[in-house]
Each structure stands twice: as structure tokens, then as C-alpha cells.
Design goal:
The protein is mainly alpha-helical. It has helices at about 5, 10-15, 15-20, 40-55, 60-75, 95-105, 110-120, 135-165, and strands at about 80, 90, 120-125, 130. It has a two-stranded antiparallel ribbon with strand order 1-2. It has a two-stranded antiparallel ribbon with strand order 3-4. Helix 5 (about 60-75) runs antiparallel to helix 6 (about 95-105) and helix 6 (about 95-105) packs across helix 7. This is Myosin motor domain-containing protein. One of its GO terms (molecular function) is actin filament binding.
């Protein structure tokens, strides 16, 4: 599991089963150490309380968890070589499920998200050139997009209390 996905997990471990299923997430256990002195449900409740204190309303909480869930789904998208020379695609049905779910959570078009992850556009004075990324570059693109989502969410969370105080 990569670092950028790790810090979202305590929130989801504490989330009740109904909302977690709404985000189409399942818990997968790995060989990562479990810190027995930490209670994820208590961490979740403390996070929700902190959100209440800084003025984050229910629809904003929902949006926050949608973004977190989308980031987790993005991390499960794999890429592969296509059947044609220099063509690259979403690897399999499992990856396509995660792509469609991430798009749904982000409220965007799945094909548009796929294109954003596997294609690059270069604009020249004469034309627009679109090229498909190789699988390794698509992974870098996917991770960069997930990190950008995470960063923008963090920036918004830092700014939110400041906006509440100004009002």
C-alpha cells in the first residue's frame, strides 16, 4: 500500500458499514502491522467531532469522504498494453470497476477520467496532438492525480476554519 493512501484508512475503518458500502469500499487486510493501542472507530468519531467544530456541514463531510474513497479506488486501477502497437488500456474488469467507481464518486464522466489518466495532449500552433501513455507513465499520471486530489482536499480543510472565523 502506498503512503498517499495510508492516512485515509483510519477514517474508513471507523465509518459505519452503511456509508462505507455507499462508497463501494471493502476492507482488505494485509501484513501491515495493526496498532492495537489505536481504535479506528474512536479516531473516526474524533475526526467527525473536529469537522463539526470547524463548521463542516453534512454535505461537505459527504464530499470529503467521496474524495477519500475516490482516491482509494484510483489506487486500484492498473494499466496494460493494448492489442495494437503503442496502445495502452485499463488492465482488466477489476480496474475498470475501480475507474467507474472513482468517476462516480468524483461526479465525472468515466471515459473522461480514463482519457485523463492514459492520454496526454500537446497543443502546437498548428494542431492538438493526443498520445496514449505507456502503462508505467499512466501509473505516474494516476498517482499524480490522486496526490493532487489529496492535496486540494487538505488545502480546503486547512482553509475551512479560517473561512468560518471570518464570517
Amino acid at each position: 500500500m502506498t503512503v498517499w493512501r495510508y492516512d485515509t484508512l483510519p477514517l474508513l475503518f471507523g465509518y459505519s458499514p452503511l456509508p462505507v458500502s455507499r462508497f463501494l469500499l471493502t476492507l482488505r487486510f494485509s501484513s501491515s502491522p495493526n496498532l492495537h493501542f489505536l481504535d479506528d472507530s474512536l479516531e473516526y468519531l474524533a475526526t467527525i467531532r473536529a469537522m463539526d467544530i470547524v463548521g463542516i456541514n453534512e454535505s461537505e463531510k459527504e464530499a470529503i469522504f467521496r474524495v477519500i474513497a475516490a482516491i482509494l479506488h484510483l489506487g486500484n486501477i492498473d494499466f496494460a498494453n493494448g492489442e495494437e502497437i503503442d496502445s495502452f488500456v485499463i488492465k482488466n474488469d477489476k480496474s475498470r470497476f475501480h475507474l467507474k467507481t472513482a468517476a462516480k464518486l468524483l461526479m465525472c464522466d468515466a471515459q473522461g477520467l480514463e482519457d485523463a489518466l492514459i492520454k496526454r495532449m500537446m497543443v502546437t500552433p498548428e494542431e492538438i496532438i493526443t498520445r496514449t501513455l505507456d502503462p508505467a507513465s499512466a501509473v505516474v499520471s494516476r498517482d499524480g492525480f490522486a496526490k493532487t486530489l489529496n492535496s486540494r482536499l487538505f488545502d480546503w480543510l486547512v482553509e475551512k476554519p479560517t473561512c468560518v472565523k471570518k464570517v
